[in-house]
User: Which sequence fits this backbone?
């Protein structure tokens, strides 16, 4: 069911329309040579296609979620879009700029927030980091002031400006980082796991801010996340990458139907029993008291679990996803089960 | 994810730190062939970014003022220990390799002042490997400034002035004790030597950092050439084996940092029967070294950007 | 029951951890070799001007240089032992977790440091030493017993080295920022261990003082036994005394520090 090649399923993206493709990605690939230790001195080399011929387009002002399991090629894609990495093949344009060739020119027009790596200065008050951005990006004074005031107000940073960054909480620091990425009015904002590790309140603040930013300023936003709620609340469009290929590109609603493949329910029973018999699932493996049941991914696991719990001595259970869309599937399963 | 195995920092190395220069043009946007005004403005951009970031680090250090005073003093003492060792040697002998103490002090002062300046300017570039490993290099790559300048200014530490001061003091003492017929040319040669020597050491720092794009744990290798180099240059060439002297003249031209100009001033024979005029070539050698190191840096950065880490 | 086994496992873990950093090890071997090379030439010039300086002949002086390079990382003379990690744990407060473990803090870190030291000795020390022995005239004993006696001094040197650095690390309980202390400890280590210049070359009263300080157990004492310059038993007594004194002092400071942590309530 993988959507291969160019464009999205519903024509949202696509290379067509010269003005529409603010971000244009055409059959881009990235091949790494990985050396693995196989012995004390021996190493084996093999090629890894981290990004394997991806194509999509993002129009100005879109807000797109980019998701997939760890190692699927998400951050490699982001690194190519920001000019950090040079693609091995294909064509890439952001605001008409080839990121890898004109990295510094592009840097003036994009904002990047790496969830786990702060760009703020650890031992200095927050405001000092902003002053550095002011000068490094050569932001005109009036614009800097206006942008800073706006960020401070909306992200509630006022009381934090004079606090050394090392004393900020994770959520405060993330808000500080987002502000730092926006002072130079970037046309596109890349966010890598912007809500990871944040408490519920901080998450809500960050999401609300991003929504406003997108609505009021028309800033294009591309975000990677593990949190399905980020997508639900922010993005009209989702792209799913797995094993370096785009396996889904379309509205969030379509994801629910996308899981036509089967999921697996792993149940631990109190003791060894004959295979569980249910109409909606079939046993694919038995190992002692543990049984593996396959069921359609589109169906709720809850009903299945309820039936098993009612009829069998259930000790523990978990839901496993098929290989593709493993992460999205898992996110849904977590919601269903928890 | 196979490559993730080697994160965590390694603390087993002896040296302190060290690294490199901003000299040549900073290698940026993959457009290696830019010439003329573009390269010039990139150099200016680089210097500007360097100044901004170094300023941030100075302010960061001042957050721990007591520690700053202590480490500056420590830096002064630690570089001075080498000289104490030399003094201890001279408590037992009158000459080393045929050179009396004031002459050794001249070599020592020139070497330490030149290296100290380079260390002060870009001494933290050996952290590049760590930045590659933990992914923070990427943060520098999304900023609108030359990466070399940003890395060079990384962890800028004023405490490294300690070595510069210590080297200058020894140099000053040597100049007053030497029995030399000072001519304007010889006098002029002294500051030129320190600046060129600084340039050569900067090139070593940059090349060492570039090497870490491939070998991220190998920061210690450059200690051999930076700290090792400056130690070597504290002694006269007559002390060392011919092969070693050849190596530091023709392969890694450390001999141009202080040996040749100092021997000219002292009227001593040159190593390897080099012609007298080579004493005046250090500026040229520094420029060539910096250009080569800049090229190595560009190749390294390009490799990083095509392979990730 | 398994206390011995536990600490052996900790030591093995320390060994393995450092064995992981292969590139860094190769880089260290290279750097130690280069520094050894530079030092050897300066020592040869020194002994050329003054044969029999400090009672060594040139071959013995050369041996001393390469022994120093072999010991530098293993005994963490210039820093780089477990003390930095311990200090970091104290600074961040993680040490409180260690204190609640049913193991002894000092023994735990000693075991980890011994494991590290053994790896550094084998991984980083042997190659520069062999390089030196192959390319320069050295003076090594032929009697296996002399080597055994030498190994005894190495073990004691490890204990003394750890004893010093454990005290340094514990200072973090009282000081906010340990950079300065670490730096001073390194300088003292370099200077007083004889890493820069053999202690028996130090003149007059200065020489007499540094030779009785604990740091002389690290390099000078083992070197003198290896070079047949000192009586092994007397050396053991000297090193052993310092080891016991330092480890006992470490224990006392640890007690005071623990009380402090408990009082502060974590």
Assistant:
């Amino acid at each position: 069911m993988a959507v291969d090649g160019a464009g999205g399923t519903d024509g949202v993206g696509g290379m067509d329309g010269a003005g529409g493709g603010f971000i244009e990605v055409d059959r881009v690939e990235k091949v790494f040579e990985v050396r693995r230790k196989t012995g004390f001195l021996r190493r084996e080399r093999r090629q890894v296609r981290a990004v394997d011929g991806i194509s999509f387009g993002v129009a100005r002002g879109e807000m797109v979620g980019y998701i997939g399991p760890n190692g699927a090629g998400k951050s490699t894609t982001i690194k190519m879009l920001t000019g950090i990495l040079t693609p091995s093949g294909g064509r890439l344009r952001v605001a008409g700029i080839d990121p890898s060739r004109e990295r510094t020119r592009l840097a003036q027009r994009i904002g990047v927030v790496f969830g786990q790596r702060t760009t703020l200065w650890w031992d200095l008050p927050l405001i000092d980091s902003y002053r550095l951005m002011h000068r490094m990006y050569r932001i005109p004074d009036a614009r800097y002031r206006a942008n800073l005031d706006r960020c401070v107000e909306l992200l509630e940073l006022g009381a934090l400006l004079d606090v050394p960054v090392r004393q900020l909480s994770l959520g405060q620091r993330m808000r500080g980082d987002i502000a730092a990425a926006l002072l130079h009015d970037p046309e596109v904002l890349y966010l890598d796991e912007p809500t990871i590790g944040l408490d519920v309140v901080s998450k809500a603040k960050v999401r609300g801010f991003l929504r406003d930013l997108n609505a009021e300023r028309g800033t294009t936003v591309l975000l990677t996340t593990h949190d399905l709620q980020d997508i639900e609340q922010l993005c009209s469009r989702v792209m799913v990458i797995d094993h370096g290929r785009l396996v889904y590109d379309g509205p969030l609603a379509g994801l629910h139907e996308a899981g036509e493949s089967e999921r697996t329910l792993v149940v631990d029973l109190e003791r060894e029993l004959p295979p569980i018999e249910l109409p909606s699932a079939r046993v694919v493996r038995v190992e002692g008291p543990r049984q593996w049941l396959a069921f359609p991914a589109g169906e709720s696991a809850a009903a299945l679990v309820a039936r098993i719990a009612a009829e069998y001595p259930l000790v523990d259970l978990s839901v496993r996803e098929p290989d593709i869309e493993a992460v999205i599937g898992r996110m849904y399963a977590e919601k269903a089960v928890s | 994810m196979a490559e993730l195995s080697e994160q965590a920092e390694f603390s087993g190395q002896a040296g302190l730190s060290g690294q490199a220069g901003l000299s040549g043009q900073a290698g940026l946007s993959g457009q290696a062939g830019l010439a003329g005004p573009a390269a010039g403005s990139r150099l200016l951009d680089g210097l500007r970014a360097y100044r901004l970031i170094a300023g941030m680090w100075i302010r960061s250090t001042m957050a721990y003022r007591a520690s700053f005073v202590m480490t500056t003093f420590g830096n002064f003492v630690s570089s001075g220990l080498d000289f104490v060792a030399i003094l201890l040697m001279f408590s037992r002998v009158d000459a080393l390799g045929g050179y009396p103490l004031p002459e050794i002090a001249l070599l020592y002062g020139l070497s330490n002042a030149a290296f100290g300046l380079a260390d002060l300017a870009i001494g933290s570039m050996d952290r590049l490997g760590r930045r590659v490993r933990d992914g923070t290099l990427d943060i520098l790559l999304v900023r609108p400034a030359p990466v070399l300048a940003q890395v060079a200014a990384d962890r800028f530490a004023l405490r490294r002035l300690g070595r510069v001061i210590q080297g200058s003091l020894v140099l000053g003492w040597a100049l007053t004790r030497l029995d030399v017929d000072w001519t304007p040319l010889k006098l002029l040669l002294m500051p030129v030597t320190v600046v060129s020597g600084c340039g050569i050491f900067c090139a070593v720092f940059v090349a060492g950092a570039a090497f870490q794009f491939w070998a991220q744990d190998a920061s210690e290798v450059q200690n051999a050439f930076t700290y090792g180099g400056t130690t070597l240059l504290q002694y006269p060439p007559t002390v060392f084996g011919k092969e070693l002297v050849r190596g530091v003249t023709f392969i890694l031209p450390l001999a141009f940092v202080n040996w040749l100009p100092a021997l000219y001033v002292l009227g001593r024979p040159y190593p390897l029967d080099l012609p007298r005029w080579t004493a005046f070539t250090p500026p040229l050698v520094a420029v060539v070294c910096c250009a080569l190191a800049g090229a190595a840096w560009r190749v390294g950065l390009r490799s990083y950007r095509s392979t990730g880490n | 029951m398994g206390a011995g086994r536990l600490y052996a496992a900790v030591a093995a873990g320390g060994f393995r951890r450092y064995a992981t950093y292969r590139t860094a090890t190769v880089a260290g071997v290279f750097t130690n070799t280069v520094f050894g090379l530079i030092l050897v030439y300066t020592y040869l010039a020194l002994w050329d001007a003054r044969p029999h300086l400090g009672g060594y002949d040139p071959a013995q002086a050369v041996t001393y240089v390469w022994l120093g390079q072999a010991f530098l990382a293993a005994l963490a003379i210039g820093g780089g032992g477990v003390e930095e990690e311990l200090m970091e744990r104290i600074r961040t407060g993680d040490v409180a977790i260690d204190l609640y473990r049913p193991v002894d803090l000092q023994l735990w870190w000693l075991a980890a440091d011994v494991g590290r030291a053994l790896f550094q000795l084998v991984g980083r020390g042997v190659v520069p030493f062999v390089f030196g022995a192959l390319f320069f005239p050295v003076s090594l004993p032929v009697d296996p017993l002399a080597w055994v006696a030498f190994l005894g001094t190495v073990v004691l040197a490890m204990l003394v080295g750890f004893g010093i650095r454990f005290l340094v690390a514990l200072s973090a309980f009282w000081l906010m920022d340990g950079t300065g202390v670490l730096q001073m400890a390194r300088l003292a280590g370099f200077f007083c261990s004889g890493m820069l210049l053999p202690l028996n070359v130090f003149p007059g009263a200065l020489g007499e003082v540094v030779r009785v300080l604990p740091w002389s157990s690290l390099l000078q004492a083992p070197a003198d036994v290896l070079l047949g310059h000192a009586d092994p038993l007397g050396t053991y007594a000297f090193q052993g005394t310092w080891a016991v004194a330092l480890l006992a002092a470490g224990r006392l400071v640890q007690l005071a520090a623990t009380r402090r942590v408990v009082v502060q309530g974590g």
About this structure: Chain B has one domain: 36-307. Confidence is low (pLDDT under 50) at residues 1-35 of chain B.
